[in-house]
Amino acid sequence: MADLFAQLATWFHDVFVKQLDAWVILGFVAQICFSMRFVVQWIASERARRSVVPVAFWFFSLGGGTMLLVYAIQREDPVFIAGQGMGLFIYIRNLWLIANEKKAVTKVD
């Protein structure tokens, strides 16, 4: 059992300490930004007492997704690159739709 803990400690050290560089830090910052969109969505929904997707959700998605894409490109991970790359189109499209809706409302007023 002690050997298992030693192997696990070595693995954690190799993954989280030995590999720590600016790219890994960017990856963690990007993941935090990307995850913040769920916190924003949850808080907005709780305040409205219904499911809400605020504009900040899409900005966190775009910012975090872009940084994660840069990280994935640097790491040369094709699955991560494809996933984040496709997601960016959805985030941009939603922000575009929101902007168009605001323009239409402004014209009516």
From TrEMBL:
The keyword Membrane applies. The keyword Membrane applies. The chain crosses the membrane at residues 20-40, 52-73, 79-99. Residues 26-97 form the Lipid A biosynthesis N-terminal domain. InterPro entries: Lipid_A_biosynth_N (IPR011499), UCP028440_lipidA_biosyn (IPR014546). GO terms for biological process: lipid A biosynthetic process. Pfam families: LAB_N. This is Lipid A biosynthesis N-terminal domain-containing protein. It comes from Paramesorhizobium deserti. The lineage of its organism: Bacteria, Pseudomonadati, Pseudomonadota, Alphaproteobacteria, Hyphomicrobiales.
